[in-house]
Amino acid sequence: MKVTAEKNEKVANMIFGSIYPLYLNRLEKNGRTKEELNQVIEWFTGFDKDALKTLIDEKATFRTFFQKAKIHPNAHMIKGVVCGYRIEEIEDEFELYKQCRRMEKLIDELARGRKMEKILREEKNKSS
Questions:
Q1: Which InterPro entries does its entry note (predicted)?
Q2: Sign of the CA dihedral 86, 12, 41, 99?
């Protein structure tokens, strides 16, 4: 599926704090914890639990959320399909939408029981 400017704008204006409980609910149904959710979000965005609470309390939009985030340098390693969108095929002009889908991919992997060390992608050491 193709991302449109309208779709990108719709996601940009969504309130992160209204979506966070949905992420958490899904994970808890699958035996995962709030701490694990926060760990994944912190790895991806750099936000610790206090920063997340502040963003939720401020009713920050996804636009603000991702503007303030320090996206992990290994985020490019997050690939695959989320909600019908292949992450690596989302155009650069829709960077916010791509980041949102990357974060959802990590949460999806967590919900499916993937091991944390696999979710938090690390570059393979290149042997010389």
A1: SP1917_dom_sf (IPR023204), UCP033199 (IPR014580)
A2: positive
Which amino acid is located at 83 in the chain? Answer: C
Distance of CA 27 to the CA centre of its chain: 14
Give the integer Cα–Cα distance in Å for 117 and 38.
15
Contact 119, 109 (CB under 8 A): yes
- The 3 state secondary structure assigned to the chain is CCCCHHHHHHHHCCEHHHHHHHHHHHHHHCCCCHHHHHHHHHHHHCCCHHHHHHHHHCCCEHHHHHHHCCCCCCHHHCCCEECCEEHHHCCHHHHHHHHHHHHHHHHHHHHCCCCHHHHCCCCCCCCC
User: What is the tens place of the pLDDT at every residue in 55-87?
Assistant: 999 999 999 999 999 999 999 999 999 989 999
Give the pTM.
0.92
